[in-house]
Structures are given as structure tokens and as C-alpha cells.
Amino acid sequence: MVARFVSGPIDVAKREPGAELARADLVFYGIDHSGPSFEGRVFINAPKADADTPRDDPHYAGSFHIFGHGGCFGDTGHCEVRAEPADAFDLRPPHQLVPATRSVIVTEALKLLVGADDEQLTVTVVAVVPGADKHDVLQFETLRLMTYQ
After folding, report:
1. 62 backbone dihedrals φ, ψ, rounded to 5°
2. pTM for this one?
3. Rounded to 10 degrees, what is the CA torsion of 86, 29, 51, 123?
4. What is the DSSP letter of 110?
């Protein structure tokens, strides 16, 4: 787990001439929420952003929030996530620690920070744990930029 993640270059879909960007989302898949609660602050083209970078920074694009479980306090095996239901007719809800997915609408930030001719951008995610000095709680599987015309 980390306190901050900086992506490699992410390709931005080319828009047809005159086409307006209707919406842009950054989607985070496979977020670990087994630890403490935290805010994931998202910055575009700001690789040096950290927990002290304010939300009124021009590169700030939005946030997602994770209500963490604060660790495992159950019996042996209680926190082991089942890969799939044991039976096709098992109607129990999924395990509470199945990795989370969060979407952040970044339309306005993308319009301001990425020009029509730009082909790539970078994303920095900074984890902020309320009331804590240590922020090493961020872990996710992948990130995806989705744009709509």
C-alpha cells in the first residue's frame, strides 16, 4: 500500500474537430478497503501533488472516499474473500471485502488541463486519512479514463 500513486502516461481519445467533450470519468477498479477510511484526492498532470496539496489547486480533479473496515477482527478465515459463490444458487451477498470500484467525474478538470491536441495525461492519487499522519492505505488494481462526446 502507498500514500500516493502517480500513473504512467494515459492516452486521451482524440476528439473529432468541433466535437465537445460531454463527460470524462476516471474509474478506479479493485480498491482495497480492508484498512482505515480515507479520501483519494485525484490530480491531473501534477506528479508532485501530495497530502499537503490543497483542493483548490488548479490540477485537483476530484476525490473518491472509502469507508474502510479498519482491519479484520473476525475468526480465522473471516476476512478471506471468496473468489465466487460456492454454489450457483448461493444467494448470500458478496463478501464485504470484495475490492471496490469508484468513479470520479473529471470533465471540467480535463477541459482545463488537457488541450485538444494533447495525446496523454498523468493521474496522481493522494490518500488522506483523517486525523492520521500516516497515509499508506492506497491500493487498487487498475485505473481507466472514459471520455464521452
Report:
1. 150, -175
2. 0.86
3. 160
4. H
Just give the CATH number of 4-71+95-148. 2.60.310
Alpha-carbon distance 108 to 11, whole Å? Answer: 18
**HEC string for 28-45:** EEEECCCCCCEEEEEEEC
Which amino acid is present at 80? E
* CB 38 within 8 Å of CB 79: no
Q: Which candidate, 64, 71, 76, places its Cα nearest to that of 126?
A: 64
CA distance 7 to 28: 12
| Three-state secondary structure call for residue 103 | strand
> Counting Cβ atoms within 10 Å, is residue 137 exposed (0-12), middle (13-18) or buried (19+)?
buried
Q: What tens digit of pLDDT does each residue of 55-109 get?
A: 999 999 999 999 987 777 767 766 677 767 677 788 877 777 888 999 999 999 9
Q: How far apart are CA 42 and CA 30, in angstroms?
A: 16
